[in-house]
Amino acid sequence: MARIPLLQMSGISLTFGGDPVFSELDLVVQPGDRVALVGRNGSGKSTLMKVMAGLVEADQGDITVPPGKSVGYMEQDPTMAGFATLGDYAASGLEPGELYKVERAGEGLKFDPTRAVETASGGERRRAALAKLMAEAPDLMLLDEPTNHLDIEAIAWLERELGATRAAFVLISHDRAFLRALTRATLWIDRGMVRRQEQGFDAFEAWRDKIWEEEDQQRHKLNRLIKSEAKWAVEGISARRKRNQGRVRALQALRAEKAAQIKRQGSAAMTLEAGPKSGRKVIEAKGLTKSFGDTAILRNFDLLVQRGDRVAFVGPNGVGKTTLLKMLLGQEQPDEGTVTLGTNLEVAMFDQTRAQLDPEMSLWDSLTGDPEMRVSGKADQVMVGGHPKHVVGYLKEFLFDERQARAAVKSLSGGEKARLLLAKLMAKSSNLLVLDEPTNDLDVETLDLLQELLDDYDGTVLLVSHDRDFLDRVATTTVAMEGDGRATAYAGGWSDYLAQRGELAPKKEDKPKAAKPKPKAEAKPKPGLSFSEKHRLDKLPAEIARLEAEIAKLEELMADPELFTREPVKFQKATEALVERQQKLSAAEEEWLLLEEKAEGV
After folding, report:
1. Phi, psi dihedrals of residue 265, rounded to the nearest 5°
2. DSSP state at residue 517
3. Up-side HSE of residue 195: CA atoms within 13 Å toward CB?
4. CA atoms of 246 and 250, how far apart (whole Å)
5. Higher per-residue confidence, 527 vs 102
6. Cα–Cα distance measured from residue 526 to residue 387, given in angstroms and rounded to the nearest whole number
7. CB 56 within 8 A of CB 14
8. 304: enclosing H helix or E strand
9. Distance of CA 602 to the CA centre of its chain
10. What one-character DSSP code corresponds to residue 529?
11. pLDDT category, 191, cuts 50, 70, 90?
């Protein structure tokens, strides 16, 4: 017997005064569906979700929800006018006997239902909206970035709840671990087209790359055909003008087809401007103790941060992660203990509150008005890595178009604000990078690029994040703050921390049949590689192969005995490039050897 869809969209088209966001879109959500909705920032994910929720009206098409079925949407910026407290808002629409559901969700999501609406932060409002949706338990839940502003404990609670629910849901999230754990199908928005795959997010990137590869092959074939037909037209049209007008029209059609192809949005051209090397010892903290009233933040905490370390700070919201960061940077004094900063430090900070962005200021003024980016006497240029650049050109590197340059910051989406903040951050040289919740609102591709930049960054990184996958990819040390002043440093990222705590269960097929669990007190760090080191070891063979190929091409170029005489500048550049790549190859091979030895326990 065929299932009746919970929601059906037919022929949906939507345009916001320019290119269509969607055109002739058909989409079905079935009972029990667990769908990841993915796409680049600005591709229309949130817009599509609002159309599904009935909050944005399409220009044409039909949306059908069967009688007796309900669709619920978690609002990003909920309107709470008329409600005194967050709890009043979250409980609105519920029967008196169902109010316990709000209390339960409030405990899991860590929001205070007695908090007055007018004093609540944006994060608290979003948690109340999420609690309201979970308490209402509609047949179809539409969740737009539900993990933003949640700590790791609350994310784990939400993951368990959604994993156990019988309701269907469509989920937008930047949190890879969250998407992998929960989704069984994927909707991908790309250049106005929505594709569906009946596999969860874990299979998304391979699927996306295959589609892009097929597109590139078709584009290459089309280019070759146009070139061939254009050559024929130039050489033979005069002799066969009357007989071959159809072929000429076919060439025009091919050119029109190419012109109509929508170019894929590239990656933001982010580069981290590394400053001069700091001293080997970057930060040394000894015996740090800090309290606010009766609340202990730290008790007798020691930490040594050396050049090149990537130190992540994890723990529940409000446990004191940002306070610890400020103490380590000398911005706040401990009650007891000392912090010694290394020499020659240049600090750059990414602030989770986006306080460095004035919402009323335009993107243009936000960059040119920054004292560290201002170019004297040039109102249309910014200083990037010690060199002036036109402000619009620099904004384009971060995927902003010319029209947005004069728009107000407040008009940007969360992901676009994060990109603007990264543009400010990356224009300045640094050797100590402080990132407080940098992953909020960023799309998967930008997260990948940010991770690669941090891998290559020739400096030290202090990182606060609740994104478990990102922590695994980046961190070499994880400082876990567990409340009541307890803070402990563990080697590696999030998964390594759990393993050392004895909290990470082995995979089912790897679990020994008669293994006896060890007490937590006896858990010790496992030998071998951390997650980030394994990731690096996996990447190195491809990097070595690329360097070897580049060296071979340069050597082939320089084998020309006339090159020096004919093009001395080109010869000099090729020589410098060859030396640079040989040095990089040597370093990569040495790194690979060290990691291989470590993996084998040598």
Report:
1. -70, 130
2. P
3. 11
4. 6
5. 102
6. 47
7. yes
8. strand 295-306
9. 36
10. -
11. confident
Tokens 């959500």 sit on residue:
29
CATH number at 268-346+429-503: 3.40.50.300
Tokens of 537: 């070891």
Measured CA distances, 174 to 38, 177, 193, 444, 581 (Å)? 9, 9, 20, 6, 35
Q: How far apart, in whole angstroms, are the C-alpha atoms of residue 174 and residue 453?
A: 18
Q: Is the pTM of this model over 0.90?
A: no
Alpha carbon separation from 265 to 39, 193, 212, 398, 401 (Å, rounded): 11, 13, 12, 11, 12
| Nearest residue to 436 via CA among 306, 332, 325 | 325
Tell me how far CA of residue 351 lies from CA of 24, 337, 433, in angstroms: 41, 26, 11
Residues written for the chain: 602
489: which residues sit within 8 A by CB, 6+ positions away? 303, 311, 477, 478, 479, 480
* Helix residue spans in 237-289 (DSSP H): 245-260
Closest of 243, 175, 244 to residue 439, by C-alpha: 175
Averaged pLDDT for residues 507-517: 38
Give the Cα separation of 422 and 416 in Å (integer): 10
- C-alpha 274: how far from chain center: 22
Alpha-carbon span 530 to 249, nearest angstrom: 61
Token pair for 376: 């004297």
Strands in 374-375's sheet, in edge-to-edge order, are: 374-375, 378-384, 387-390
Q: What is the pLDDT of residues 391-417, one digit of tens each?
A: 898 888 887 888 888 889 888 877 788
pLDDT, tens digit, 9 for 90 and up, residues 98-113: 889 988 998 899 888 8
The CATH number of domain 7-206 is 3.40.50.300:
yes
Residues 6+ apart with CB under 8 A from 117: 80, 83, 84, 85, 86, 88, 89, 125
8 A C-beta contact, residue 300 and residue 484: no
Q: Is the dihedral of CA 474, 477, 482, 485 positive or negative?
A: negative
Q: What's the rounded Cα separation, in Å, for the pair 476 and 501?
A: 16
Most distant pair of Cα atoms in the chain: their distance: 95
DSSP three-state, residue 341: strand
**Location of structure tokens 């009541």:** 484
Are residues 61 and 54 in contact, defined by beta-carbon separation less than 8 angstroms? no
pLDDT tens-digit series, residues 255-283 = 565 555 555 555 555 666 667 788 889 99
| CA gap 124, 117 in Å, rounded | 9
Phi, psi of 225 (to 5 degrees): -65, -45
Residue 84 φ/ψ, nearest 5 degrees:
-80, -40
Joined tokens for residue 318: 């409000």
Tokens of 117: 């609406």
Identify the architecture of domain 531-599 in CATH: Orthogonal Bundle (1.10)
SS3 (DSSP) at 22: strand
pLDDT digits (tens, 9 = 90+) for 49-69: 999 999 999 999 999 999 999
Boundaries of every domain in the chain: 7-206, 207-260, 268-346+429-503, 354-428, 531-599
361 within 8 A of 408, measured Cβ to Cβ = yes
Amino acid at 30: Q
